[in-house]
């Protein structure tokens, strides 16, 4: 799209006429640069007359939103880390219980093997005697 030249050879007019032409050119430039939706916000800014107040308000709002989001993120992260630590301790307790059960079962199995060997020896001896 070709942009029309914004330079005009203005005849000698009064000061008010020059300001009106410059203001009209600025409005035309805003229409070319900004989409239709943002033009409403530009019109509202012109009506309020203070863009610094709007920018300061939105900046404060953004900082507040960032701070609240940051605090929520930290809280959720702390809760998740606490839950993971709890799960680690629970798992460690379960593993300790299972390992102690395995050790006791190992001892029982060894005793059963000894008894089995003794019984087999006794049976072998009794068969030999018969």
UniProtKB/TrEMBL annotation:
Domain of life: Eukaryota
TM regions (residue ranges): 65-89
InterPro entries reported for this sequence: DUF4577
Keyword Membrane: yes
Pfam families: DUF4577
Keywords: Membrane, Transmembrane, Transmembrane helix
Name listed for the protein in its UniProt record: LSME1 protein
Annotated gene: Lsmem1
């Amino acid at each position: 799209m070709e942009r029309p030249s914004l330079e005009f050879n203005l005849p000698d007019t009064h000061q008010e006429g020059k300001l009106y032409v410059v203001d009209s050119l600025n409005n035309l430039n805003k229409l070319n640069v900004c989409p239709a939706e943002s033009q409403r916000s530009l019109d509202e800014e012109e009506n309020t007359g203070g863009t610094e107040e709007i920018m300061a308000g939105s900046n404060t709002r953004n900082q507040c939103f960032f701070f609240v989001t940051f605090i929520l993120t930290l809280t959720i992260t702390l809760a998740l880390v606490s839950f993971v630590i709890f799960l680690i301790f629970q798992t460690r307790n379960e593993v300790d219980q299972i390992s102690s059960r395995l050790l006791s079962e190992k001892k029982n199995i060894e005793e059963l093997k000894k008894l089995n060997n003794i019984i087999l020896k006794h049976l072998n001896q009794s068969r030999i005697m018969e």
